[in-house]
Specification:
globular; 19 strands; alpha/beta; single chain; seven-stranded antiparallel sheet
Length: about 575
């Protein structure tokens, strides 16, 4: 990316160079004579003095010019400068390319490799629990959207008590129906919950927890989250043995529980009814202590690896909000040898999510290990990020649809540039129609309906994103909002945007040729609810106009005429 100086710097450089030329012209002949030894030593000393003075002044000018460099079109007082000092806006070598860092001053953070495909995934959570999700229509809708968008790996929930309702008696109907609907060549991630009416600890307080969290009474409450450690660990190991043996040829990724780190002291809650004594930590997803979870993780990891050594097994996923950091730290300190991946859930503002990556990498390093990071749940439009609250009481305004499409690109590109290897969308089609507009999960689907027939602009944008970036092998952050994705079988694809107003970007130092193709994302529908595709543009590489809406930029390949060399 070419850098240009502001006008003040240009004037300073021109005046200084002219002054130096005036001083140096009389010395040109002295320089020539010095080389042949034809001038007295005094003149040689004088020449050396002026030569050193010139170098010093030029270095000062160059440093001043560097301090005023900016991207074409970027305001001189922008918050992030191309050469911001390391330590002010970012911390080089922490594994995340932060603001103020770039490929020039922190290559080890801002050039990420090691991507191996299957980067884009979709979640169908609570299948087998929510009635409105547990049917063939829902499965078909998920599969259709999954295929149309181009997702590559699918994640589902598995519940011990629903598959083994009685000790040593199995009913595989739920999982068979699930996997029979999903294409055989689709990699699958199972999140396994150790929740069972007959096999789990702490069942005597499940109805109290359900009442507190205002869940509707469910006769299957004992066979759904929250999970807890088994009464008899061998019973659960037998279940895992049967599960992995049956589905190991289809399921290569296994997660042990979901968001257990959100569990807190129940006696600290404002609960209207009287709690019995002796309750452990509780949450939507876990009843028990951190030590009990670690014991469950370690046993589960070893059992799955015993059956399928090539399987990828990971500890529970982590959020930032609604979290117990002491619980988080205990898991991280004790799971280094029992997890192949660090799983995160991203539901905050985009920069907060990236900050969480930095934080969690630091935690891993402090405990002496480093694992690949996957985002196992992700969605756009965290209402808290948008202070105008335009999404609080209504759905699908033009502003919301445009913003969702923009965030689909930005959030995933930012995560990949920070080193995330895989990203799973939480919702492909719309969530339950009964959920209120104030639920952020209602603003994350790619369709207007639960069965996936009426597509949002974000559907087409997500599809375009995958088409452009599928099978990338590297990501380079040139600057904030300027990213280059590398491939083995095609030229680089650039993703550009500006959150600071309109800019003009020069990519002529990166892309061969003079022109490039710009592809626009879809941000609105026409009167027939069809996507409005803006035509691709051919632009000069030295003057690419960008704004808050991301675009894809690719080199234009001009065929060599036949007979040319």
């Amino acid at each position: 990316m070419r850098i240009v100086n502001n006008n003040i710097t240009k004037k300073c450089v021109i005046i200084s160079v002219l002054a130096l030329l005036f001083l140096l012209l009389p010395l040109v002949s002295l320089a020539a004579q010095e080389k042949t030894g034809e001038i007295p030593a005094i003149f040689s000393s004088v020449f050396g003095f002026f030569k050193g003075l010139f170098n010093t002044i030029f270095a000062i000018i160059q440093n001043y010019a560097d301090s005023n460099q900016r991207i074409i079109g970027q305001p001189a007082n922008a918050d992030y400068m191309q050469d911001s000092p390391i330590g002010i806006m970012g911390v080089c070598s922490n594994g995340v390319c932060e603001e103020g860092e770039n490929i020039t001053n922190c290559q080890q953070d801002c050039f990420v490799t090691g991507f191996e495909g299957d980067n884009f995934g979709g979640d169908l959570l609570w299948y087998g629990v929510h009635e409105w999700k547990t049917n063939q229509e829902t499965l078909n809708a998920f599969q259709n959207i999954f295929d149309e968008v181009g997702m590559e790996v699918a994640r589902f929930d598995i519940y011990w008590g629903k598959l083994e309702p009685v000790n040593d008696t199995y009913n595989w109907t739920l999982t068979d129906d699930l996997l029979n609907t999903i294409n055989n060549n689709t990699p699958v991630l199972f999140t396994v919950y150790s929740t069972s009416e007959w096999g789990s600890q702490y069942n005597d307080c499940r109805e109290l927890i359900s009442e507190y969290y205002k869940n509707d009474y469910d006769p299957q409450i004992y066979n759904r989250p929250p999970s807890s450690i088994p009464i008899n660990m061998q019973d659960y190991m037998d279940f895992l043995d049967a599960l992995v043996t049956r589905y190991g040829d289809r399921v290569k990724y296994w997660m042990i529980e979901n968001e257990v780190h959100s569990a807190i002291d129940p006696y600290s809650l404002n609960i209207e009814f009287q709690l019995p004594t002796g309750l452990p930590l509780i949450s939507h997803f876990w009843i028990g202590t951190p030590e009990e979870y670690v014991e469950l993780l370690q046993n589960s990891y070893l059992k799955i690896k015993q059956i399928d050594p090539e399987a990828t097994v990971m500890a529970t996923n982590f959020m930032k909000h609604e979290t117990n950091e002491e619980f988080t730290d205990h898991i991280l300190e004790n799971c280094g040898n029992y997890t192949d991946v660090l799983a995160l859930n991203f539901y905050q503002c985009p920069q907060d999510d990236i900050d969480r990556i930095v934080e969690m990498k630091g935690k891993m390093n402090s405990f002496g290990y480093d694992k690949p990071i996957w985002v196992t749940e992700q969605g756009e439009i965290d209402i808290a990020c948008h202070t105008e609250a335009i999404f609080q009481e209504s759905f699908n305004s033009s502003e919301e649809l445009k913003l969702q499409s923009e965030e689909i690109v930005k959030r995933q590109v930012l995560a990949f540039s920070a080193g995330v290897k895989k990203i799973f969308r939480l919702n492909l089609n719309r969530a339950n129609d009964e959920w209120a507009a104030t639920s952020k999960f209602q603003h994350m689907g790619l369709t207007f309906d639960t069965v996936g027939n009426e597509k949002m602009p974000g559907f087409y944008t997500n599809k375009l994103l995958i088409e452009k970036l599928k099978n990338f092998i590297s990501v380079e952050k040139i600057d904030y909002g300027i990213y280059r994705f590398g491939f083995t079988d095609k030229n680089s694809v650039y993703v550009l945007w500006s959150d600071e107003g309109e800019k003009i970007i020069d990519l002529s130092d990166y892309v061969i040729g003079n022109n490039a193709k710009i592809t626009h994302i879809v941000t609105e529908l026409d009167g027939n609810n069809e996507p409005i595709y803006l035509s691709d543009e051919t632009v000069s590489l030295d003057s690419i106009h960008i704004n808050e809406t991301p675009v894809f930029v690719e080199e234009i390949i001009v065929p060599t005429p036949r007979g040319s060399y």
